Amino acid sequence: MSIGVSPSDRSIAKYSRSDANLRKNVTNRLLADIRGLAPYIATRAAEIEAGRRIPLDLVEALRSIGVFRMFAPQSHGGLELDLPSGLEIIAALGRIDGSVGWSAMIGSAGGVFAPSLPRQTYERVYRNGPDLIFAGSVQPAGTAEATSGGLRVNGRWPFTSGCQHADWIAGFCVMTEGGKPLLGEGGRPLVRGVFLPAGDWQIEDTWSAMGLKGTGSHHITLKNIVVPEANFFDFENGRPCLPGPLYQAVPQLLPLFHCAIDVGMAEGALDDLLALADSGRQQFRAAVPLRESEIFQFELGRVAADLRAARATLEVQAASHWRHALAGTLKDDTLSAQGTQTGIWISATCVRVADACFTLAGGSAVYESSPLQRRLRDLHAAAQHAAIHQRHYVAAGKSALAQFRRRLEEPSQLAAE
Fold first, then answer.
1. 318 vs 288, more confident
2. Three-class SS of residue 123?
3. How many whole angstroms separate alpha carbon 324 and alpha carbon 335?
């Protein structure tokens, strides 16, 4: 099941009309390979949960079909898919298994982060090919201070999904001088990311969680390590070393990665509920089987509508972000607030879908053997992520007020002119 595209193939990175069919064919082949793996992944669900990680043979199966190269540049042998196609693949994996989809999302999304590195370092990262797996923590839980030979780094970072099978790992540091934080824009602490081979990090076994159990999202540490300055990058304001539209405004993309996996997991929950109903199951004291109950049919129709709305909203926002990425206009505070707002709403909607599916399934859903209890736990855990947390609605509210004021001011400005 190989979908490799060699660097000599026609460049997807041009994103011209003539390349649209090529991109679609690559995406369809990858989706077909994922469907081929689906039964195998499903049989490993209990093992994934118990082991609190993705089994290495399954990681390698995903690597072999090209999952981890989908955002890597064509110039370095990657697929460099457009944003909507990449999100479709993430959702497809999440629909099969939440932990597998989440780990694949994190492992491949590092291909969008990596071009923030200096070009020489980037070339070193990709010197052995495009099928790299990344992990990292965006919390600025470390410090970095200039010293002889580079910067001295200390820190302990949480939620490092997939760190046990990663090739490279990133962590974010507050830059310090004399032990005190250096200040950047708006008086905030100056933060930089540090990128190192996975073997340079220590992993602490801390991931005992209620959901997304199989993601291995342990703590990682660096203790008194001197790191060359060339291994640092500026996540928010740096200039990428590659020209592709995926790499120009990375923070704006992150909420959409997260809501894509949420849509996939919610679709999986609905699949599980439909399979249960179609089995002929009849609940205790119910007059008819689930599939014949109008009460069940009513609730099912409502849940399916919520999920369709979430999927449609994701597709509309992904298409909008991609148009702006192609035009070079995505790095915009209003678009950032809009994408985050979309991610929060989709995540909350998908949690409601999972809750409803769990409730409609009745008592059978409480057993560990039921996939519905796992979907519910996984979606609730995913919704806690900082990228799509409810508190970020504030930025969208401020943006709405600012846009309203601008509309009020425009007539008076036109009249004055």
1. 318
2. helix
3. 9
β-pairing verdict for 134-147 and 168-177:
parallel
Closest CA to 22 of 67, 76, 103, 80: 80
Looking at residue 92, what is its pLDDT? 98
User: In angstroms, what is the C-alpha Rg of the chain?
Assistant: 22
Q: Residue 179, by phi and psi: left (phi above 0), alpha (psi -120 to 50) or beta?
A: left
pLDDT digits (tens, 9 = 90+) for 113-166: 999 999 999 999 999 999 999 999 999 999 999 999 999 999 999 999 999 999
Q: Which two tokens mark 55? A: 């089994």
Range of weakest confidence among 150-164, 261-275, 361-375, 393-407: 393-407
Chain Cα centroid distance, residue 168: 17
Gap between the Cα atoms of 90 and 43, Å rounded? 20
Cβ-proximal residues to 37 (8 Å cutoff; 6+ apart), any chain? 1, 61, 62, 65, 96
DSSP string, 212-273: SGGG--EEEEEEEEEE-GGGEE-TTTPPPSS--GGGS-HHHHHHHHHHHHHHHHHHHHHHHH
pTM above threshold 0.85: yes
3-state secondary structure of 52: coil
d(CA 82, CA 232): 27
At CB < 8 A and 24+ separation, what contacts does 304-307 make?
304/270, 306/349, 306/352, 306/353, 306/356, 307/263, 307/266, 307/267, 307/270, 307/349, 307/350, 307/353
